[in-house]
Design goal:
The complex is a heterodimer. Helix content of chain A is 77%, strand content 0%. By secondary structure, chain A is mainly alpha-helical. In chain A, helix 1 packs antiparallel against helix 2 and helix 2 runs antiparallel to helix 3. Chain A starts with a helix and ends in a 6-residue tail after the last helix. Chain B starts with a helix and ends with a helix. The chains are: A mainly alpha, B mainly alpha. Chains A and B meet through helix 5, helix 6 and helix 8 of A and helix 4, helix 5, helix 6 and helix 8 of B.
Chain lengths: 180, 459
C-alpha cells in the first residue's frame, strides 16, 4: 500500500514535470507546476521530512507560485506571445544541449543510486544497529529547532546578511530615479 | 571571527550613512573599516586556530592570508570608486554596502570549515554581485549581464547543493574534519554517492571560478557590468573561489586524487585554450581582459591538479599577481574610456607620449599578466609550472607554455598601441586615488617579482 502511494506520487510528479517543460502555453505550465510541487511535498512526507513538506507548500506553493501567477497576469501579452513562439522542433539546437546536460546529470544520479544497495553508507548501518532512527510518529521539528539554535547558530545568523542584502538590492533596483 | 562581524557591521553602518545623506563620509568610513579588519586579522596571526561555533569556520593561516588579500583588493577597488558611482546614481551608499557584503561572503568562502558555511558564503558573495552587475538600470548591456549572471549562477548553485547533499549522504556530516575522517578511514568502501558529489562540486566551483566548459557567462557578464564591478568580480571573487576550491579539495579529497585529477586536467587544458584563443581575436580591451581572465583561471587550476602542500602558496602568489595587474588593466580602461569613449585597442594609441607614468604602470601590468621575468606574474607562473612538473604532468606544462606564448601576443598589443602608435588626442587626467592605486599595484608587482620570498613563506 505504501509503495503504491509512493509510486503514484512520483509518477504524478515526474509526469507533470515532463509535460510542463514541453508546454508552450505559460498559464497551463504554471498550473501544472502546482501539481508538481504538491506531489513532491507528498514525497517529502513519505521521507519523514514533514517540516520540509510544510515549508514547501507554504513557501513554494503559497508564495513563489502565486508571485509567478501575478507576474504572468501583469506582464505584457505581446511579449508572452513572442516567448511562446520559440523553437518547436524537438531536436532544435538549444534543446539538445539541454538534453545532453540533463542526461549526463541523470546518468550520474542513476548510477549512484544503483550502486547504493551494495555500498550502504556506514552511518546508516550504525544508526540502524543502535536503533537511533526516526519513526513515522516522531516529531522532527523539535530536532530542527534545537539544531538551528545550537550547532547551526552561525549559519542561521549569517543567512540574515543574505536576506537583508537581497532586500536592499531589490529596493535599490526598483527605485525610481530622476532622469539626469 | 571579529573580522566577519566588523565587515557586516561596517556594511550596515554604510547603509545608515546613506540614510542620513552623509555622502562625503561613505568612502573614508568604508576604508577605515577595511583597514580595521586587516588589523584585526593581523592580531590573530600566529595563534593556533580552532574551529569556531561547532566547527563552522576555521581561521587558520590559509584563511587569514586569503581573507587579507581579499580585503586589500577591496580597498584598492574602493579607492578607484571615488566619484565613479556618483555619475550613475545619486544613491551611492548601496554600492558600498553591497560591495562590503559581497566581501563578507568572500571571507566566509575562504574560511569555511563546514559545507553549510561554504554554501552561504558563496550565496552572499554572488547575490550581491547579481545586483551590482545590473546596477546601471538604463544600460541594456548591464541588464543583460545581471540577468545572465543571475540565471547561470542560480543554476550552478543547484549543482553545489546537490553535490553537498550527496557528500552528506555518503559521509553523514557537513563538517570538513568528519568528511576527511570518512575518506581516510574507508579507503575501499567509498560510496558512489561521494564520487557523484565530488563531480557536482567541481561543476559548481568551476562555474564560480569561470573555468571552461562552464565559462560561458564570463565574457558577457564582465563586458556588460560597470568596469568597477568587473574589477571586483575578476579579482576578489576569483580569489575567493579558487581559495575555497583549494581548501575543500586539499582538506578532504586528496586520498581520492586518482578519481578527480583526470577530470580537472582535461578541464584545465580546455580552459587554457578557450581563454587564450578567444582572447587573441578580440578587438575590445575589456573583452580581451575578460577572456584572458578565463585563461588565468586555467593557470590557477594547475595548483589543484598538482595538489599538495605547496599548492596554497602558489595559488596565493599567482592570484595576488594576477589581481594587482587586473586592477591596473581595468582601472586604466576606466580612464581611457572616460577620455575617448571607446574600449578598443585603438583607444590606447600613443598614450605613452602624454601619460608616460600611466603607460608605464599599464606596461608593467601587461608584462606581469603575460608572465615576463622580474614581474610577479612570472614568479606566479613559475611556481605553478614547477608544481605541475614535480607531479610529472609534462604534457600539461608543454601546453601551458604554448598558451603563455599566445598570452604574450595579445597583452603586447596594448603595449604596442601605447608606445608605437601615433597620438590622436590630449593627455588623460589621472586623479589622485587612481595614481595611488596604480603606483602601489605596480610597485608591489615589481617587488614581488624580485623578492618573491616575502609572500611565499606566509602559509
Amino acid at each position: 500500500m505504501q509503495a503504491l502511494v509512493f509510486y503514484a506520487f512520483s509518477a504524478i510528479a515526474i509526469g507533470s514535470a515532463v509535460v510542463l517543460v514541453s508546454m508552450q502555453n505559460m498559464a497551463r505550465a504554471l498550473f501544472l507546476f502546482f501539481i508538481v510541487l504538491f506531489s513532491v511535498a507528498g514525497l517529502y512526507v513519505f521521507a519523514l521530512a514533514d517540516f520540509v513538506a510544510i515549508t514547501q507548500i507554504l513557501i513554494y506553493v503559497g508564495g513563489v507560485l502565486v508571485l509567478m501567477l501575478f507576474a504572468f497576469m501583469l506582464s505584457n501579452k505581446t511579449l508572452l506571445d513572442q516567448l511562446q513562439r520559440g523553437t518547436s522542433h524537438f531536436f532544435a539546437l538549444p534543446v539538445w544541449q539541454a538534453l545532453l546536460i540533463s542526461a549526463c546529470f541523470l546518468a550520474i544520479l542513476v548510477y549512484a543510486s544503483l550502486q547504493l544497495g551494495t555500498f550502504q553508507p556506514a552511518w546508516m548501518v550504525a544508526a540502524e544497529a543502535a536503533g537511533t532512527t526516526i519513526g513515522p510518529a516522531d516529531s522532527t521539528v523539535n530536532h530542527i529547532g534545537i539544531h538551528l539554535m545550537t550547532r547551526y547558530l552561525l549559519p542561521f545568523e549569517v543567512v540574515s546578511i543574505l536576506l537583508m542584502m537581497a532586500l536592499v538590492g531589490a529596493a535599490h533596483l526598483t527605485r525610481k530615479e530622476a532622469n539626469p | 571571527m571579529s573580522a566577519i562581524i566588523t565587515l557586516s557591521l561596517l556594511a550596515i553602518l554604510v547603509l545608515y550613512l546613506g540614510l542620513f545623506k552623509a555622502r562625503r563620509a561613505l568612502l573614508p568610513v568604508s576604508l577605515l573599516g577595511l583597514v580595521a579588519t586587516v588589523v584585526l586579522y593581523g592580531v590573530q596571526w600566529g595563534k593556533t586556530a580552532e574551529p569556531l561555533y561547532s566547527g563552522m569556520v576555521l581561521f587558520d593561516h590559509f584563511a587569514v592570508v586569503f581573507s587579507v588579500v581579499c580585503v586589500i583588493l577591496t580597498i584598492l577597488v574602493l579607492l578607484l570608486s571615488k566619484d565613479y558611482f556618483d555619475k550613475s546614481s545619486p544613491h551611492v551608499a548601496e554600492y558600498y554596502a553591497l560591495l562590503l557584503f559581497s566581501l563578507t561572503g568572500a571571507v566566509l568562502v575562504v574560511s569555511f570549515h563546514n559545507l553549510a558555511m561554504l554554501f552561504i558564503g558563496i550565496e552572499i558573495m554572488s547575490v550581491a554581485l547579481y545586483i551590482l552587475a545590473g546596477i546601471r538600470k538604463k544600460d541594456f548591456a548591464s541588464n543583460e549581464a545581471a540577468l545572465k549572471y543571475f540565471l547561470m549562477g542560480a543554476y550552478s548553485t543547484g549543482f553545489l547543493l546537490f553535490g553537498i547533499a550527496l557528500l552528506y549522504g555518503a559521509s553523514g556530516s557537513f563538517d570538513l574534519a568528519a568528511i576527511k575522517e570518512y575518506v581516510v578511514s574507508n579507503p575501499q568502501g567509498i560510496s558512489p554517492l561521494f564520487y557523484a558529489g565530488i563531480l557536482l562540486l567541481i561543476v559548481s566551483l568551476a562555474f564560480k571560478l569561470g573555468a571552461a566548459p562552464f565559462h560561458f557567462w564570463t565574457p558577457d557578464v564582465y563586458d556588460g557590468s560597470p568596469i568597477l564591478i568587473t574589477i571586483f568580480m575578476a579579482t576578489v571573487v576569483k580569489t575567493a573561489a579558487i581559495a575555497g576550491f583549494l581548501r575543500l579539495f586539499y582538506f578532504c579529497f586528496i586520498p581520492l586524487q586518482d578519481f578527480w585529477v583526470p577530470v580537472l586536467l582535461v578541464m584545465t587544458i580546455i580552459t587554457l585554450f578557450v581563454g587564450n584563443l578567444t582572447a587573441i581575436v578580440q578587438q575590445s580591451v575589456k573583452r580581451m581582459l575578460a577572456y584572458s581572465s578565463i585563461s588565468h583561471a586555467g593557470y590557477l587550476l594547475f595548483a589543484i591538479v598538482a595538489i599538495g602542500a605547496t599548492s596554497a602558496n602558489s595559488v596565493l602568489f599567482y592570484v595576488t599577481a594576477y589581481s594587482l595587474s587586473t586592477i591596473i588593466g581595468f582601472g586604466s580602461l576606466i580612464l581611457v574610456k572616460r577620455a575617448t569613449g571607446s574600449e578598443h585597442f585603438e583607444a590606447f594609441n600613443g598614450l605613452a607620449k602624454k601619460n608616460p607614468y600611466l603607460s608605464l604602470a599599464i606596461a608593467i601590468a601587461m608584462l606581469s599578466l603575460a608572465g615576463i621575468p622580474l614581474t610577479a606574474g612570472f614568479v606566479g607562473k613559475f611556481m605553478m609550472f614547477s608544481g605541475v612538473l614535480a607531479d610529472y604532468q609534462v604534457l600539461l606544462v608543454v601546453l601551458a607554455v604554448i598558451n603563455a606564448a599566445m598570452g604574450i601576443f595579445y597583452y603586447f598589443r596594448v603595449i604596442v598601441a601605447m608606445y608605437f602608435k601615433p597620438l590622436d588626442r590630449d593627455a588623460i587626467v589621472v586623479s589622485g586615488p587612481y595614481r595611488v592605486v596604480f603606483f602601489l599595484a605596480a610597485l608591489i608587482t615589481l617587488l614581488l617579482g624580485v623578492y618573491p620570498a616575502w609572500l611565499t613563506g606566509l602559509i
